[in-house]
Every structure is written in structure tokens, then in C-alpha cells.
Records
---
Amino acid sequence: MGHEKLSPRQKMIGMMYLVLTAMLALNVSKEAVEAFKKVDAGLTQTIKNYAIKNDMIYKEFDRAAAENPAKAGKYKTTAYQVKERADEAANFLQGLKIEIINTAEGPENTAVKGDEVIIEEVKSIDNTDVPSEILIGANLNGKANELKALLAEYRDFLIATLEGKNPTAEEALKTSLNTADGKNKDGEVEPWETLNFQTLPLVAVICILSEYQLAVRNAET
């Protein structure tokens, strides 16, 4: 689990996200919603940076295990178990983003290239129907339920892997990968799924999914 101080760029992205979320609650203009594209672009770059950093760490596990298999081999095995779980969660989140954009934009859109999302190319930034249809569903049986279960399993796996040896990291995991129900703006308890994704504009939902991808990669580190 990483515990680095946030860089000025990360702090800026976080502040923009908070401000824009507040603006959405006030039903502001499409131009303000457009600014979410910049936030997501920043989150996406940070996710890529974590992936590069994590790959370097895995190479160190490879090197250590090659030099001393008896001592480092078991740690390499555990590390790659973490990688497998992290990749599963990150890829599921990416798949959700791609499905939402393809559904809203149509099959010939330019916002999805292979496994990559080009947020600047998204046109349906204020579409609130498609994200809710996919993630919430007509009978609350949408894919956010599967996402919640996957994130919870990933979090619990990482905590178990720590074997009680790092309480600080455990608390950080519980916070960054929190899937508990919470209170809405009216102070009423609301399910995690609807609290995060119900009736939000498409670009805001994409940002939230990117935030969870970042949390997954940071937890992996």
C-alpha cells in the first residue's frame, strides 16, 4: 500500500473533482460538466504512472527471487497474487467505462480505441440515462452490484495478505476501497451503488470509475 504525499498535480485533480461535483449538484451548465474531462484525463495519467511504478516493483521481486529463491520466492508468489487481483479489478472498471461510452456514443465512436478511453472524444458527457441503466438497472440489479462485490473482495484479500502486520495500511485500504452504504444529501442512508452512480452525468460516472481504478492501483503498490 502506498503512503506517499500527494503531488501538487494530484491535489489539484482532487480539488477540481470536489468543486465540480458540488457544481453538478447545483445543475450548472454543460460547459462546467465539460471540465470533468480534464479531471478524468489527469486521473488516467496518474493510473498509468502507478502501473509503471508497480511493474518496476514486480521486477524487483523477480530479481530477488532469482538471486535467493528460498528466501524471496514465497514473497514473489504473494506479490503476483496481488497483481492478479489488482488487474482483475482495474480491468473490470475499464470494461464498465468502455461499455457505458459505447452504449451512449454508438459503435462508431472515437472515444474508445481498443482498451483505451479517450475522454476528450466523448460527446454524450451529460447523458444520465445510460450510466444508470448499466450500473443501477431497472430493478437495482445493475453492474454496480458486481463492482461493489469485486472491490470488497479485493480489499479483504489485501488486508488478509498483510496478516495484521500493518494496521495503518489496513485502515488506508478500508478507506480508499470503502463500499459501505452512506448518507445522501438529505442525511438518509443510501446504498453504495445508488449513492455513487444514480442519475449522474456520464462524464462524472467515468471520473468516479477512474477514481476507483486509481485506488486499486495505489492499494496494489
---
Amino acid sequence: MSDTQLRPAWSEAFSSEALRALNAIGPLAQITPDWAWGGSRGEAVKVAVIDSGIEHDHPAVGEAVGEGIVVEYDEGAFYKFRIDPEPFPQDVSGHGTACAGIIHSMAPAAQLVSIRVLGKDMHGRGIQFAAGLDWAIDHGMQVVNMSLSTGKQEFFGMLHELADQAYFKNIALVSAVNNVPAPSYPSTYSSVFSVAAHAVHDPFTFYYNPAPPVEFGALGIDVRVAWNNKQMITATGNSFAAPHIAGIVALIRAKHPELTPFQIKTLLWACAANTRREGK
């Protein structure tokens, strides 16, 4: 899980004169946060949260949770998992509700879909993760938040193939980076939006990192988040940075549904706090 911060230096030092020049002239200079998502509330966008579930009736998610599934490990099943519908989704730990609440606070008209692959101990098997992602790809999600990852090499190829499928089906996958400086999947794939935490307490302030695999930094330190049993807590982690980017991506998708993940990344680059020109 991505519950401790792994922060590149989101400083002005990462914003070179070349980057500022690119964003000061030509078509990219016309891209502003207001143009990209101003006036959007995430209407008609489905956002899947692959996590520990979503507490469907938590005040922080309003009435945005439309459906859910539970992916259980099943030794007796052919593919070692089974998928059960969950008409009224629940969260077994609180983590998924925290991510969902952040997304809802930013894109209140988006529909949230709960995909539970983690248990009470915040652990799950890689095959459950892969199955949940596969379900999201096959069921019309436009944005998928993944504040979880695996470092097991055996799942590298499987998750990479799924990430590519999502990319080519115009699905934006947003992934929190690992909590230690070691490869984790799918956050290292170029087809996903990889996110780490920063401490600026503005949900719409984010940074571009010119030294991937971490691409973007968003609020993830001392964040007030929803938790189980209608609670609110203060939490820190890359897990909570990812849904801030997922929320912005949902706003962009609602306003500009024709854009591909590649084009949405370009908008995020143009609107990042350390790349856009002064006064933009």
C-alpha cells in the first residue's frame, strides 16, 4: 500500500526555463485550469475505486456510490478468484472510503463504483487486484483510482497488459506510487497517471515531475479524509494524493469527453503549479 510519502522535490527547481517557454507560447499557452475543468462537476463520469471498498452511505460520498463488487480469492475457482456483486457497498478498513471521499469532494457529480479487493488488514492477492482492474476495464469505467500496488514480479506482465488495454480503451488509470523507493506495479507503467504526495493544502494544486516514473504530485499529507463508520480522520500517504488527481481527471473527462489519457496528461502538465506561466 502507499500510505507513507515518497516525494520528489516538487520545487521550482524542477521547472526549467525550457518548460516555462513551452508553456508560455503557442497552443499550450491557452490551456488553463479554467479551460481544462472549470465549471465541471464530473457529470456522467464513472470512477472506479479499487481498494478496500466504499462505505456507500458515508456522508462524505453523498449518494454517489452506484454499484460495487467484491473480488474474493478462491482456491477452488479456475482462475483462483470469484467476483460477487455488492449492491450496497461496504468498506472493511476505511481506506477505500477515504479515497472515494476525496474524489467526491472534487467531482461531486461523478458516479463512484466500489471494487473491493483488499481485506480488513489492507492486504489482498495480486490476482484479486488484476481481476478487479479487468472488471473495471470491461464495465465502462472512465477513471480508475488505484491507491494500491504490488511489487511482485510475477504480476508485472499481467498488470502491464491490463494497463495497456485500459489506455487503448480511453480509460484513465490513476495509481499511487509505492511507499518505499522500489518498483511497484502498475505505478511504474507509462500508461498510468502515477502520483506521489506533497504538503500544499489546496486540493487543486498539483505538480509535474520531469523525472518519472512518478509523474505528478498532489495533496497527500495531513489530509482530512472519510473513514469507516461515518468517521473522519487525518491521514498522510501517497494513497491520498492519487484520488486528488483522479478527481481532477474526472472533471476533465466530463468537460472534454473526447480527450485520450495522453491528451489529459498534457492538460495536467500545462496546468501544473510548477510549469504554468505566471498569471495563467
---
Amino acid sequence: MHSTSFAPGLVLAFVVALAPRASAQTAPKEQPSDKPLETPTRALEFYGATGYTQGFGELQSGVGMKHVITPGFATEIGAGYRIDPRWAVTLVGQYAEFDAERADTARGLVLGAAVAYHARPYDKWDPWVQVGAGYRLLWENNVAPAPDLLTHGFELAKVTIGLDTRMSRDISFSPVVGVDLTLPLWQATNGQRSTAI
């Protein structure tokens, strides 16, 4: 099972940030300074993100994701530590609501850890990449007497890229896009013991 997620509302900000800009000439005293921006180091970091998510591939042999869930909405939060201006480690949690195809409702949860690298931490525009792994759960809920089904397994790898727009030393906004590879291994019906897929 693969999934992707991004914040479509922030993609516009990403495009605007990269678009060429016309500027009038200003007096030398009004030109921006080339002084590097102050960047957090040895500091706690917190972030939140929201956007579109979609699954691809197969949930199990012969069962495609498009027959289980269709695109939905995800919210992600993270808490971490900025080791130095370029490197950070983060604990991540993501909750998602999907349109269920074979159940009444479907929702997912991922818990994991990641490492991020910031390419230009002293600039206003700071591209970064984050690599992580975790554990994914997918609940399909049915109206009784139909059974509920929990599928779970390892998120083997997740890669996320973004472009921080630095508002201050401590605040930035970023459009993001990510993709992960998940290996579902077990299923449980109505809260019973999980069995191997």
C-alpha cells in the first residue's frame, strides 16, 4: 500500500514563491541585507499540516486500494528537536479520514519517527527533505451486523519534501508533498486477535 499527501492550499504559496518577480530600483540604503537569518539550533520544534491523501497499490493480494478507500483528508502533527541548523529529528503522528468503498467509514493512523535535512537554513527560502518510518493502521467500520476490520503493518519508508518560507527565527510556512511505502501484515475483525494476511 502506498499513499501520498500534500497540502493543496499551500501549493499556491509554493508556486508564488518560485515565480520571478519584477522590482523597481531602490536606493542602495533600501536594498535588502545579505546578512544570514538567525536559525534555531538545539531547540524544540513543533509543526502541523493538513491536506489531501490517497492510497495506491494493494491492501492484500487481489484487493486493490481503490476498492477499499478513495482519496481523503489527513492531518499530521510532529514534535522534534533541531540538532543544528541543518538537521532535526521528529516524532510524527498522522490521522486520516477516507471515503470508504466497502465499509461504512474508513480512517487511518500512522505513528513514526523521521529525520529532516534543511538545505539552506540561513535563507528566507529553505528547501528541506524528511525521511522516516513508522506503523500504519487502517480501520474499516461497518454498521452491525457487518464486521469491523482493522488492517495494520509497517510504514517502511516515508519521504517528504517542502520549502520553508521563514517568517521569523521561530516561525515558517511550507508547502509539502510526501509519499510512503507501507507493508500491511495483519488483520483483525471486530477487535479479535490479529491474524497474518
